[in-house]
Design a protein that fits this description.
Blueprint lengths: L2 E5 L2 H8 L5 E5 L17 E5 L2 E4 L2 E2 L2 E2 L6 E4 L14 E2 L2 E2 L14 E11 L5 H6 L14 H13 L10 E10 L2
Parallel strand pairs: 1-3
Antiparallel strand pairs: 2-11, 3-10, 4-7, 5-6, 8-9, 10-11
């Protein structure tokens, strides 16, 4: 069993935490049928990298240097009330997920299935498993699949837009305690 990092945005971390996200799709790089999945195989584990900050807890605005450093996660919204628009959490800047060390990761996922498919082959059921925010009985008749399409393009429009229908790795996972 191998462990590898995987990046998720704050909304997708929230979806993992609430149990609505059990799949992710990632652009396929390499020759189809020759390249092994860079994320692993069923049974392997992924540790989630997310936007975070490390600092000392505070009490009534006073930093408590007598307490150990701890991690806060942007997905939790813990610091939103005092995080500035400049991307800082108090006096400390948020650190992008790509820089998260393994020790800071709080979420571990176990891969249960890996497959390759065209992006636009996603079903409505799989779009829901991607954790997209979706409102049943939407007056505009938007589907989870359409919500996923918008999410995909917001993250991948420059290198692998929905319209190009790229090959993607489809990973199904379950959350586990490390």
């Amino acid at each position: 069993m191998k462990g590898r990092p995987i990046l998720f945005s704050s909304p997708m971390v929230r979806a993992i935490l609430d149990g609505s996200k059990t799949q992710t799709r990632r652009s396929f790089a390499g020759t189809l049928g020759v390249t092994p999945c860079p994320y692993g195989v069923p049974g392997d584990r992924l540790w989630v990298r997310e936007t975070f900050v490390q600092g000392h807890p505070s009490d009534a605005g006073e930093v408590r240097y007598d307490l150990p450093l701890r991690y806060w996660y942007r997905a939790d919204g813990d610091l939103d009330m005092w995080a500035g628009e400049d991307g800082h959490a108090g006096d400390v800047p948020w650190r992008p997920s790509i820089h998260m060390p393994r020790a800071a990761s709080r979420i571990t996922l176990e891969i249960t299935d890996v497959r390759v498919e065209r992006l636009q082959a996603i079903s409505e059921e799989d779009a829901l498993a991607e954790g997209v925010p979706f409102v049943q009985n939407d007056p505009f008749e938007r589907t989870a699949r359409r919500e996923f399409q918008d999410l995909w393009d917001s993250l991948n429009a420059k290198r692998a837009p929905w319209a190009s229908n790229p090959w993607v790795w489809c990973l199904t996972f379950k959350r586990v305690t490390p």
